[in-house]
Amino acid sequence: MTSEITLFVNPTAGRGRGARAAQPAASALRAAGFSVRTVLGENAREALTRARAAVAAGTDALVAVGGDGMAGLALQAVAGTDTPLGLVAVGTGNDFARALGLPVRDPAAAGRTVAEALKGARVRDVDLGRVGGTWFGTVLASGFDSRVNDRGNRMRWPSGRFRYDLAMLAELAAFTPFPYRITLDDGEVRETEATLVAVGNGPSYGGGMRICADADLTDGLFDITVVGPCSRASLLRVFPQVYKGTHLNHPMVTTHRATKIELAADDITAYADGERLGPLPLTAECVRGAVRVAGP
Q1: Which of 87, 166, 230, 293 is 20 to 30 A off residue 179, Cα-Cα?
Q2: What's the Cα-to-Cα distance from 239 to each of 34, 150, 161, 199, 200, rounded to whole Å?
Q3: CATH class belonging to 139-294
Q4: Is residue 293 scored above 50 in pLDDT?
């Protein structure tokens, strides 16, 4: 009997790369002997409803085609089930795919990798973060970086990444550290001023910024990076180090590991996998082995 795979497609990902990537990914899966059914929706809610229906109907795998937003949407359908997740990463960031060692912006290679993993039973369990009923695979961001997201999302011009570059400059001009209240597994309440607090299930966000560089998707723990209060000049000096993860050695940066974190701060919105979660306070927990993934 031929196994059926559900291809979960965002046609607008990467300025249309999602739609273009679906065909070579589907061809690679069919060449490996799988039957492929495509699911998409006119909006995120409709697409997720259809993906959940495919999982409930017993699809052998859900393969998301798009960026981190599409991967995050797929997680809401497969987390806590036995249905494996495959990723064909063609978005802007692709941080979850990178963390899993999957091909990025090569849909045919990604399709072959997923097919080979499924045929060879190379499926592994990895951890996810959870806030209420929402799952995330990479990083929960709060503070300066989430303020940049807020401002960028309000801007109508320019388009693409440049919008967020301008948003960062605008936020930097008005920047002051934020008073946080942080509670970890030990129950001790830490009250501190911080530039940002990042909660990492995976190591990176924003297309390779290794804000939680040592995070491990299989250890059952969050890596938490707290960037303390700093001047605009210090922030500009440290920022480039995030791409290599060397910022973790800076004296204004502290790190923690925990299975659960409670974050509270006034007028701060949290984002996870690049998508808006909602305002603080919130509680995030790391759930060991919450999703099965097909890959190397």
Answers
A1: 166
A2: 45, 19, 17, 17, 17
A3: mainly beta
A4: yes
